[in-house]
UniProtKB/TrEMBL annotation:
Pfam families: TNFR_c6. Residues 30-72, 96-134, 136-178 form the TNFR-Cys domain. SMART domains: TNFR. The lineage of its organism: Eukaryota, Metazoa, Chordata, Craniata, Vertebrata. Disulfide bonds join 31-46, 97-112, 113-126, 116-134, 137-152. It comes from Lates calcarifer (Barramundi). This is TNFR-Cys domain-containing protein. Keywords: Disulfide bond. GO terms for molecular function: transmembrane signaling receptor activity.
Length: 241
């Protein structure tokens, strides 16, 4: 008759000292300092604890115990490049901007996240274990710069009731540009966009149009001299016949 040995795996934090036989059970030893066992095992050696100091950009987040490995995280000024089992295995220093460049990162908690590019907004912030994610701007919204915002800006509405019309339509990376309707001039300009317009002045009878209104200036009127006349629409006064 064949002998059957039943191997019993013992609890975490320990290792096998001697295997069982038909006459005795397995005996175990606790893991040595600097080692751990996070699962029931039949091994005679525990796993070595991860050393966060082997990578210059890492530090200890959670120390190694007999039942769990060390968890590493990036040092201040570094970001994680390789994540495994919720711990960081490799980190890299944040890039420094050159003269003439501007920072495209934002801080959330203790993390510096790359901003989302123009035409998008932040969906989820970065953590030590994942990069930030972005969403494209919805229709009717835009983002014209790198951003940490979670919503894009609403496109400007060129209101005909305010004397405005569309000069350049809104895109995901640029706002609408408005201009005055024919017969109106702009009273308020912001970032090359007309924000408010007013109808050109009408000259009164006895006056003539001395300077025709444009998209940026109002009409100018002048009085006719004696012996001349205008119904207010002439560009010069006419002599009486």
């Amino acid at each position: 008759m064949h002998e059957i040995k039943l191997l019993i795996f013992f609890s975490t934090g320990s290792r096998v000292k001697t295997d069982c036989t038909e006459f005795r059970s397995t005996s175990c030893l606790p893991c040595l300092e600097g080692t751990y066992m996070n699962q029931p095992t039949g091994l005679k050696d525990c796993f070595p604890c991860t050393n966060c100091n082997t990578d210059p950009g890492l530090k200890i987040k959670t120390s190694c115990t007999s039942t769990s490995d060390t968890v590493c995280e990036p040092l201040e000024g570094f970001y994680c490049m390789d994540v495994k089992d919720k711990g960081c295995e490799a980190a890299q220093r944040h890039r420094h901007c050159e003269p003439g460049q501007y920072i495209t990162e934002y801080q959330t908690g203790n993390e510096c996240c790359p901003m989302c590019p123009p035409g998008s907004c932040v969906k989820t912030n970065c953590t030590e274990f994942r990069s930030r994610s972005c969403l494209p701007c919805l229709e009717g919204t835009y983002m014209n710069q790198p951003t940490e915002r979670t919503q894009c800006f609403p496109c400007t509405n060129c209101d005909a009731g305010s004397g405005l019309k569309i000069k350049t339509s809104c895109t995901s990376t640029s706002d609408t540009v408005c201009e005055p309707l024919e017969g109106f001039y702009c009273m308020d300009v912001k970032d090359k966009c007309c924000m408010a317009a007013q109808r050109h002045k009408h000259c009164e009878p006895g006056q003539y149009i001395s300077k025709k209104g444009t998209a940026s200036t109002d009409t100018e009127c002048s009085d006719c001299t004696d012996g001349t006349f205008s119904n207010g629409t002439f560009t010069s006064c006419q002599p009486h016949t």
